[in-house]
Amino acid sequence: MKLFDVYPINDIIIEKALGSNVWDDKGTQYLDLYGGHAVISIGHTHPHYVKRLTDQLHKVGFYSNSVKMPLQEQLATMLGKVSGKEDYQLFLCNSGAEANENALKLASFYNGKKKIIAFRKAFHGRTSLAVAATDNPKIVAPVNETDNVVFLPWEDEAALEQAFLQYEVSSVIIEGIQGVGGINVASESFLRKIRTLCDQYNAVFIADSVQCGYGRSGKFYSHDHAGVQADIYSMAKGMGNGFPIGAISIAPKFQPVYGMLGTTFGGNHLACAAALAVLEVIQEEKLIENAAAVGAYLMEQLRTFDKVIEVRGRGLMIGIELPAELAHVRKELLHTHKIFTGEAKPNVIRLLPSLALTKAHADEFLAAFGKELSK
Ligand SMILES: Cc1ncc(COP(=O)(O)O)c(C=O)c1O
């Protein structure tokens, strides 16, 4: 059997990883400003994380959601505290798409309505409803097509008001900072407008925090910058530092009913141990504060390069827009300077490093980036 060839890959085999560095099979060291796509939140193979997972594996790795799991309760308590949502409820699953799928379903169960409002360039995942709410026809199969999703222009308050008049809106789903769409930060006024309209029309505000959440923006949820409370927050990527886990954090007004949501693997012992280790390190090492500080430094420095068209983002979720003729810079960073970064469009470099990135790492990147731009 061979692999189903759906990923364009770099010809690099990673054999070792620690903190913000990875090493290939030839021993070459790389600086990782990509974090396997915003997944590595506390740094690769963090000793506390390795120990907590290893200890858990020696006790029990998995049992289903048919028995009591104190680890899930510990996780809910701690996540409530760290995210500042102690009165919310936690449903655990395995990925970002699954988190959004459950959020959209729960919204519809709650208000009995069907229409979902999503935005241009949004990415919410690849499962049926999540992909239908994703603005990329290439990844929507005919079977996923539905009239239940309405796409609106980004940041268009008038279009949003009009949509609420025109449709029976069940939910509005929005990334606080669009990731795949090119690092576009939702304005505080737009997020507040969504909150107001959802309240007015009994619709559910879903904050997709899969990529922009978990401290990456310098606050736990990027939507927190607007001072609004969403009804449901979806999360995944940074939550397990590489161990597959996703979740939704659900406002108190939603009443659970047995069987309404469910999963075989979601919230298993190992996943909870991984997620607890991540939160413990985030707190212990003040990583949200670090993301805010190192991110602000990086953005300020990046804005000093004449050739950079725009620097967008918050904290350690940064998009660097370059002129089309400099689209090759990202490849040079990888092959010449041994620095992993992400890409949004060919000419937007995405930085999604560990939240523990140091100023020295930032300077290493800035020096390499400066060399490439001055070529
Ligand atoms: C904002 C956002 N939502 C949802 C997803 C889907 O997450 P997953 O790949 O874990 O299903 C992603 C993945 O990139 C994402 O960036």
Automatic annotation (TrEMBL):
Amino-acid biosynthesis listed as a keyword: no
Top-level lineage group: Bacteria
SUPFAM superfamilies: PLP-dependent transferases
Pfam families noted in UniProt: Aminotran_3 (PF00202)
Cofactor section: pyridoxal 5'-phosphate
Protein family (similarity comment): Belongs to the class-III pyridoxal-phosphate-dependent aminotransferase family.
The protein's name: Acetylornithine aminotransferase
Protein's organism: Chitinophaga polysaccharea
Taxonomy of the source species: Bacteria, Pseudomonadati, Bacteroidota, Chitinophagia, Chitinophagales
